[in-house]
Specification:
The complex is a heterodimer of chains A (about 550) and B (about 400). Chain A has about 550 residues and is an alpha+beta fold. Chain A is about 30% helix and about 30% strand. Chain A contains ten helices and 22 strands. In chain A, the strands form four sheets. In chain A, strands 4, 6, 10, 11, 12, 18 and 19 form a seven-stranded antiparallel sheet that branches. Chain A has a six-stranded antiparallel sheet with strand order 2-3-20-21-1-22, with helices on one face. In chain A, strands 13-14-15-16-17 form a five-stranded antiparallel sheet, with no helix packed on it. In chain A, a hairpin with a 2-residue loop joins strand 10 and strand 11. In chain A, helix 1 crosses helix 5, helix 6 crosses helix 9 and helix 7 packs antiparallel against helix 8. Chain B is an all-alpha fold. Classes of the chains: A alpha+beta (about 550), B mainly alpha (about 400). Chains A and B meet through helix 2, strand 8, strand 11 and helix 8 of A and helix 10, helix 11 and helix 12 of B. Bound molecules: protoporphyrin IX containing FE. Protoporphyrin IX containing FE sits at the interface of chains A and B.
Chain lengths: ~550, ~400
């Protein structure tokens, strides 16, 4: 028999036999089907198949862009601009591959997994409870035939040896049973002990049960969490009310009155980079920090900072600094009338410049502007600005394209930084430096008043986090013993030698997992016992015929307790 | 020393110094493995080259020392922990593979004869890190947090331990195939009469194939003689593994990961193909080398146990590291889990190894079945590591405030 480290529960893969007919007619059929389904779910092999399916779904989610994360890429795949083409994209859509974790197939799989988990766990828990309540270490009839055997001789008498062994084992938290020989036919007087019986299986149960806690915490979070986003320009403020967020994602049970109404003032945003183009990591950012002042619902104020990795917690809500950009203050006048004045929240593009759109429906016809902002565009010898992709605002330049016509506001879907130019006509473009203005003709004057920065804040409330941590803790606490605890038994059998008056002590053991580790543990115990008893080892050769072969003797099965 | 000098020193320490040390340790340890069993000269008497094992182990420890020195110097050169980019991850993975394997094989499990394979694995991983070499440099501030360092080091260390498990798993499958082949050879062909070996009237000489299979015949120190001459025994073991099938299988298996280099958007097609082919052929060569050593390996069940122990440890680490990653994500990006490619990949790897653990606990799939699932799980680990970093991140910028 080869040594394996882990013993499967013997009933792990029972055949799915149809039940004895419980009755005729449709009801009997339904009952039989349910019983069959349950028996199928209980099988270990089923759990393996389901895990395989979960793996396939997850592989799909790894290699295919996911709509909730990168919606634009998914659209590009669907139209064939990117990815493997429209045919494949259609197939992916068919199986819900663009939103794997929101697809019905995934939900069904999750349901099956949890059903299978439940079906597995109920009998395992029952068996485990029975084990914990009723099991006693079994006795051995022939200690010499166990997997690991050592023999000692000592002058002490049998009772003394058994007492010492029981003490030592109890000190190491073994479950110990001391038994005298009752009849000639019963096993010899001995100390039998067992350890690791509950913890391995118990750990595995705890590990699997923690998935229910995890699921409950996730569902709880879906219902009661909140997330909102908002960009704030330096020097401006933001109050926690439902209408002031730009994106607002409440859980199903999130209540508008759950906002406490704190106020956040953004005093200044600091950002810096490795500016030396020859230094290692040139161009990498080195600093993102917002200096803020918060006013809590109870009126107390506090001056503090928010950094990328240091969110601020106010009244149970977390404020993260997620995003930033430049915010030029732009004024647009038509015939001396101010039709637009605002900070434009320009966002970073892959090319290194920033983009935004200006929409001024107050003008007639509407004015729209496509804005390109270059933080660093120094003049060349001819006095012409040369745009670069550098991010630091040492020579800011605003480039724009002016449009007039109908902005189609409220009629077509457009984000704040996007113009719908279908009903607009361009009337030319221009560039301006900070503090300057440009006359675009037809009475239109555009002014770049000053430059600030904006910060994108995310505000979130996630009451599920403590429960998620609890689930993680249970999971890890169960996993360690499930993988590392090992079940083993020890027997100490002392016999008075009728001839020379010595006592012969046999220390036998057997491990169900991790036999090598157990060998060391066994040797350590033998040494300590020998110390206690002033005993000396008997020649090892004759004492252990079976150190490398686990020889299960007939009397040591779990049910063999007399 | 200036930072530039430190940077140069760290590079030299890495390649050639560490790389060559791993390779020489592998050669010496593997050579001593062939002499250790002593089949060549019978079971008694000293064997030429037997005392090479201590030399090999000393070389192996020196290699680990040089690797640690590289990490320290690199850390000094950039004044931060060397845990910032793919080169540094792969390098640390190799270090954990080598140091962890050494500690496990020489101190915990006392099987120093297998160190050669660990060194070979470390050499390959060290060399593969050169594919993504980056000079020392600073880290984005968003990445510079304690949680991240913790998360990344736990994940990378677990990946290193998974790699040890993969080595044992591969050896286990090879050895298992060889043992089956040997058992069949004994069962079906009559023994050569009067073969030059030990007495041929041992119990195994009369065994049927099934009995031999069940008893797992193993002609190394765990077992005294099958009755076959030593050379025939070795030949039968090797013959059980078709070199062509092994080579093709390894090539295809490696391709499940190496195509990523062809698909990398930042590399040219020729470059990518060269890399993929290099990786595939290196692995094929390693598989063939391992096949040659099959008669000198411990029993398949022992290798299976070693694989299980290491994978179990790495699985715990991976679980812990993934949870730490979620905590970092909550702290840095304000959401603990968003199914982005990296998170999805971590989850996928976790599922794959959970499947391995389940397979090993299931009647019918334990042993070979679990071994194959373990190989597959390692392919998933490597695929997600390279694919997500080189290909899919391009779809979606993960690491910044964007
Ligand atoms: C929800 C998905 C599941 C996951 C992620 C999972 C994961 C794991 C992991 C990682 C282990 C190894 C740790 C240990 O030994 O306890 C394990 C063990 C085990 N699982 Fe699951 N499991 C899942 C569902 C199930 C189901 C549905 C069953 C029932 C058929 C099951 C039965 C077992 C058993 C019997 C073991 C013990 C193996 C041993 O003794 O080594 N698991 N599971």
């Amino acid at each position: 028999m080869s040594r394996t480290d882990s013993a499967a529960p013997p009933e792990a893969n029972p055949k799915v036999r149809p039940p004895r007919r419980g009755g005729d007619g449709p009801l009997g059929f339904v009952r039989d089907s349910v019983v069959m389904a349950w028996r199928w779910l209980v099988r270990m092999r089923t759990a393996l198949y389901l895990l395989g399916l979960l793996g396939l779904e997850t592989l799909l989610a790894t290699v295919v862009p996911q709509e909730p994360n990168v919606g634009a890429t998914v659209d590009a795949w669907r139209t064939g601009e990117e990815g493997p083409g429209t045919l494949v994209a259609g197939l992916i859509d068919l199986v819900g591959g663009f939103d794997v974790y929101g697809s019905p197939a995934f939900l069904a799989l999750l349901l099956l997994l949890f059903l299978s988990l439940t079906a597995c766990l109920i009998p395992r828990i029952r068996a485990w409870v029975r084990l914990v309540r009723h099991s006693r270490p079994p006795l051995t009839r022939n200690a010499g035939r166990q997997a690991v055997v050592a023999r000692l001789t000592t002058d002490r008498d049998v009772a003394e040896v058994h007492q010492a062994a029981a003490d030592l084992l109890q000190g190491k938290r073994w479950r110990v049973r001391t038994e005298d020989a009752a009849t000639t036919n019963s096993p010899p007087a001995q100390v039998a002990a067992e350890k690791g019986l509950w913890s391995r299986e118990g750990g595995s149960l705890l590990f699997h049960l923690s998935f229910y806690v995890l699921l409950a915490a996730i569902v709880f979070g879906q219902l009661l969490s909140f997330e909102g986003q908002r960009a704030v320009v330096e020097g401006e403020r933001f109050a926690d009310t439902p209408v002031s967020y730009w994106t607002y994602r409440p859980g199903r049970w999130w209540n508008e009155t759950s906002h406490s109404g704190w106020i956040l003032d953004l005093d200044q945003f600091h950002v810096d980079w490795v500016r030396d183009p020859l230094a290692p990591g040139a161009g990498q950012p080195t600093l993102f920090r917002s200096d803020v002042e918060v006013t809590r619902a109870d009126g107390t104020t506090e001056t503090t900072v928010i950094e990328g990795n240091r969110p601020l917690v106010i009244d149970g809500m977390k404020i993260h600094q997620l995003d930033w950009g430049y915010a030029p203050l732009v004024q647009v006048e038509v015939d001396g009338q101010l039709v637009y004045e605002d900070f434009v929240t320009a966002t970073l593009t892959d090319a290194g410049h920033f983009r935004a759109a200006i929409k001024a429906p107050a003008a007639d016809p509407d004015i729209g502007m496509d804005v390109f902002f270059y933080p660093y565009a120094p003049d060349n010898e001819a006095g012409e600005p040369v745009p670069t992709g550098a991010p630091f605002a040492d020579a800011p330049l605003l480039l724009f394209q002016l449009f007039r016509g109908d902005l189609q506001l409220g009629r077509t879907a457009q984000t704040i930084n996007e113009l719908d130019t279908s009903q607009l006509d361009t009337t030319g473009g221009a560039w301006i430096r900070e503090g300057a203005e440009v006359d675009m003709g037809e009475g239109v004057v555009v002014r770049f008043v000053e430059l600030r920065r904006w910060v994108g804040f995310q505000v979130s409330a996630r009451p599920q986090i403590p429960y998620l941590l609890l689930a993680s803790g249970l999971l890890l606490a169960g996993l360690w013993p499930a993988l590392y605890a090992y079940r083993r038994r020890l027997w100490v059998v002392a016999e008075r030698h009728p001839g020379d008056g010595h006592t012969l002590v046999t220390v036998a053991g057997r491990a169900f997992q991790r036999p090598q580790t157990f060998d060391d543990e066994h040797a350590g115990f033998v040494e300590r016992l020998a110390d206690r008893l002033d005993a000396s080892p008997l020649d090892a050769d004759e004492s252990s015929p079976a150190t490398s072969v686990a020889a299960p003797a007939g009397d040591q099965g779990p049910g063999a307790t007399p | 020393m200036s930072t530039d000098q430190l940077a140069d020193l760290s590079r030299v320490l890495y390649s050639p110094v560490t790389l060559l040390l791993y390779i020489s340790a592998a050669i010496v340890c593997l050579y001593s493995l062939t002499t250790r069993v002593g089949l060549a000269t019978g079971r008694s008497g000293k064997v030429a080259g037997a005392n090479l094992q201590p030399v090999g182990l000393a070389l192996a420890w020196t290699a680990v020392g040089a690797h640690v020195a590289h990490e320290v110097v690199r850390g000094l050169a950039q004044s931060r922990l060397p845990l910032g980019n793919m080169f540094e991850f792969t390098s640390l993975m190799a270090l954990v593979l080598a140091a962890g394997g050494m500690v496990y094989l020489t101190i915990v499990r006392k099987r120093p004869e297998l160190v050669g394979f660990v060194m070979l694995g470390a050499a390959v991983v060290v060399a593969s890190a050169m594919l993504t070499y980056a000079a020392p440099g600073p880290l984005m501030p968003i990445l510079d947090t304690w949680w991240r360092s913790f998360h990344v080091s736990v994940i990378v260390a677990s990946a290193g331990v998974f790699t040890i498990g993969f080595l044992f798993n591969g050896l286990h499958l090879l050895r298992d195939t060889a043992e089956r082949g040997l058992a069949e050879a004994i069962g079906s062909t009559p023994l050569p009469a009067g073969g030059a070996g030990e007495a041929s009237d041992g119990p195994l000489a009369t065994m049927t194939a099934e009995e031999a299979l069940a008893g797992r015949v193993a002609p190394d120190e765990d077992h005294d003689g099958t009755g076959l001459p030593v050379a025939a025994e070795r030949g039968a073991m090797r013959a059980a593994i078709s070199p062509l099938r092994l080579a093709i299988g390894t090539f295809l298996g490696a391709s499940t990961v190496s195509w990523v280099f062809v698909a990398t958007p930042t590399a040219t097609l020729g470059d990518g193909l060269t890399r993929a082919l290099t990786i595939n052929l290196t692995l094929v060569a390693l598989a063939l080398i391992a096949r040659w050593f099959v008669p000198f390996l411990p029993q398949a069940s022992i290798l299976d146990g070693l694989a299980y122990r290491t994978i179990a440890l790495a699985f715990f680490g991976w679980t812990f590291g993934t949870i730490a990653g979620a905590m970092w994500a909550e702290q840095s990006w304000g959401r603990f889990w968003g199914w982005d490619p990296k998170e999805t990949a971590a989850f996928l790897t976790w599922i794959a190894y959970a499947a391995y653990l389940h397979a090993r606990a299931t009647r019918g799939t334990r042993g070979r079945g679990a071994g194959w699932i373990g190989l597959g799980a390692f392919a998933v680990l490597m695929f997600t590591y390279y694919a997500v970093n080189l290909v899919f991140v391009g779809l979606h910028s993960y690491a910044g405030l964007s």
